[in-house]
Write a structure and sequence with these properties.
Elements: H1 13-27, H2 37-50, E1 59-62, H3 70-76, E2 82-86, H4 89-102, E3 110-113, E4 129-134, H5 143-152, E5 157-169, E6 174-177, E7 180-183, H6 185-195, E8 197-201, H7 203-206, E9 213-219
């Protein structure tokens, strides 16, 4: 019999998390990515528009889930400009069904399951994106996964790329539950600076309904 809950202490974290998301997606694919489907979908979409996203921009949606933001981005962007991936087959399947229902398949997005589960971007064959987004992803990851992402970001960013990511802010690292983590803004600032990126805290501007913070990372072309 399939267990409803994986053991996060003894199993590989990302496998356990993907399994849990798959199980949730079978019940409700919108709740599986945190609910607030319309509100959070619109919030992330409008924020990237305010930050210069254009129909001709390319976007990488890291941990795209069941396309809460994705359906809006795909609708807005030109053909072949949206790429999204996720470790959960269940949410990817649900997202593809939503695209069919909305008749958005003609936009030819690239959407795939991140089978390797790591954040080394090996499936993207060196493609670089104008915009990158990780909405409500780092809030569910351990520091080692976030560090891996930062170590490999330069494979998918060009000189003008902008990488936006959200996080649960707190005074210091705190594990709220099996899959929810708080980080202090300084964790990301120090990591970005160590890796040679520039980083900006846009949390006030983002005004997330559940008080997540938002940061912007760019390649630092003028290191001091
Ligand atoms: C809370 S959901 C948010 C989904 C989407 N960004 C949104 O705003 O609706 C977080 C998603 O990140 C995915 N995720 C976590 N780690 C990942 C990784 N290493 N690679 C790809 N997806 C990942 C999870 O499977 C989950 O679907």
């Amino acid at each position: 019999m399939r267990k409803a809950k994986k053991n996060f202490d003894t199993e590989d974290y990302l496998s356990a998390y993907a399994y849990q998301t798959d199980v949730k997606a079978k019940i409700d694919s919108e709740m599986a990515v945190g609910g607030l489907w319309d509100k959070m979908g619109e919030h992330q979409f409008k924020f990237l528009l305010q930050n210069g996203l254009k129909p001709e921009s390319s976007l990488l949606d890291i941990g795209c889930g069941s396309l809460r933001g994705g359906v809006r981005f795909i609708n807005y962007l030109d053909e072949e400009k949206y790429t999204g991936f996720d470790i959960s087959k269940g949410v990817i399947q649900a997202g593809m069904e939503k695209l069919d229902e909305l008749g958005l398949g003609n936009k030819k997005p690239t959407i795939f399951v991140n089978e390797g589960k790591n954040l080394r971007f090996e499936d993207l064959d060196g493609e670089c994106f104008d915009y990158l987004l990780a909405q409500s992803v780092f809030s569910h990851l351990h520091a080692a996964h976030i560090e891996e992402c930062f170590e490999n970001l330069n494979k998918v960013m060009h000189a003008d790329s902008r990488f936006f990511f959200t996080f649960h802010p707190g005074p210091e690292f705190l594990q709220r539950s099996d899959t929810d983590f708080e980080y202090s803004p300084s964790f990301f600032i120090e990591l970005a600076e160590k890796m040679g990126y520039s980083i900006e805290d846009l949390s006030d501007e983002y005004a997330h309904p559940r008080k997540q913070g938002m940061m912007l990372v760019r390649l630092n072309l003028n290191p001091s």
